[in-house]
Amino acid sequence: MGKGGNVDMKWIRLKYKKWFNISKDGLVKNNQIVIAVLGICSALAVTNRVENAIAMGLGVTFVVMASSMTVSLIRNLIPSRIRMVTYMVIISSLVIMVQMFLEAYFFDIAKALGAYVGLIITNCIVMGRAEAFAVKNPVRYTLIDGFASGMGYTYVLILVALVREILAFGTILNVQVMPDAWPKWVVMAMAPGGFFVLGVLIWIIRELSKNFEVEMK
Amino acid sequence: MDRIIEIIVATILNHNIALAYILGMCPLIAISTNVRNAKGMGLAVVFVVTLTGIINWPIYMLLKSTGTSYLSLLVFIITIAATVQFLEMFLDKFFPKLYNAFGIFLPLITVNCVVLAVSLFFANRNYNFAETTAFSFGSAVGWMLAIILVAGIREKMAKNSDTPRGLAGKGIVFIILGILSLAFIGFTGLANI
Is A114 contained in some domain? Predict the structure, then answer.
């Protein structure tokens, strides 16, 4: 056994660490898009190109982390009756920061995302994390949780965008990958493409992880 | 007047806010299990979106004239939250019947991105007051149409269809929405917003 046993023990101990479980929840087990089906609007509306998906994913990750941190810091001062409005004000201030940052440094992406940057405010993931996690936990865990949820969101966005961009334009990040003769599936860049790709992705992930939703009859 | 009708037709059919702009998906997926609830949610959305559109327009003009339009996000969301809260208290006090009909749907609307999106879209398009009202109303009716269509299909499917287990529940809604939105592409070019 010797060395192998030690590695096993380390792995087992890791499994009981809180930060490990929080990250696993956010990235895989309770992935906000695929399993919880939250934050769909932005996940579909901006994923016709990979660069938009990356910008949106990072924007949401930043907002989730910063808003969870702020909510957690002042969680003992917020009267519970007006907590929703408090979250809204915190979140929208952060989103305004993201919007101004994108407009200043990545103008093309800001143009392509348009009003959808502002709509991060009503992205259920941000509000959901604040209400379900940040308001009950100390700051260091909320940062991990925000990061994991945000990254779980980002990689699903990038996956969807990869499929859509390849099929619709034959490119990845504007670099051509398909032969010239590729018939561009323009419909993939429009709304139906987004719905179909995400639907199939959810199907594949649920089938692979054997995590089925119980249907009420 | 022609312009108003054109905007209403466009926002209901070819620029449908749910099926072409993919907005308001969370409540659409969560509440579309039966037609009755879908109708309730749809009506509540029509009511709130039209009202907040009308309230937000003068506020946006004020912000614009003072050169602080970067604050519009923050101001819009506060207006929306306040309107919903006020509406809830007002209906509860004076129209208890209507309040009971809306029930749980009213508070849920604050997090419906259709409401904020409508305000942000008209802000980007330089509409006048009448156009804004038409745009808000039409978008909300379009959303209601989408949720009722999806709910109708889901109700039928729950009885008759054998859905693959990986798609059961929320997964299949995406396929339904995809097909519906393909159908709505058929309206392209019907009217401009």
Answer: yes
Total count of domains within chain A:
1
Instruction: Kindly provide the ipTM of the predicted complex, given to two decimals.
Output: 0.87
Closest chain A residue by Cα to residue B118:
A115
Binary contact (A213, B182; C-beta < 8 A):
no
Please indicate, yes or no, if residue A23 is contained in any of the structural domains: no
Q: Tell whether pTM > 0.95.
A: no
- How does pLDDT run across A8-64, given as a tens digit for each residue? 777 777 777 788 888 888 787 778 788 777 888 878 888 888 999 999 999 999 999
B74 with A96: Cβ contact below 8 A: yes
Residue B171 sits at the chain A interface (C-beta within 8 Å): yes
Question: CB distance from B59 to chain A under 8 Å?
Answer: no
Chain A partners within 8 Å of B113 (Cβ): 41, 119, 122-123
Of B113, B121, B169, which is closest to A122 when you measure between CB atoms? B113
Locate the chain A residue with the closest alpha carbon to B27. Answer: A38
pLDDT tens, position by position, B153-171: 999 998 888 888 888 888 8
Task: Give the residue numbers spanning the domain of A203.
Answer: 35-209
SS3 letters across chain B: CHHHHHHHHHHHCCCCCCCCCCCCHHHHHHHCCCHHHHHHHHHHHHHHHHHHHHHHHHHHHHHHHCCCHHHHHHHHHHHHHHHHHHHHHHHHHHCHHHHHHHCCHHHHHHHCHHHHHHHHHHHHHCCCHHHHHHHHHHHHHHHHHHHHHHHHHHHHHHHHCCCCCCCCCCHHHHHHHHHHHHHHHCCCCCCCC
Residue A185 lies in a domain: yes
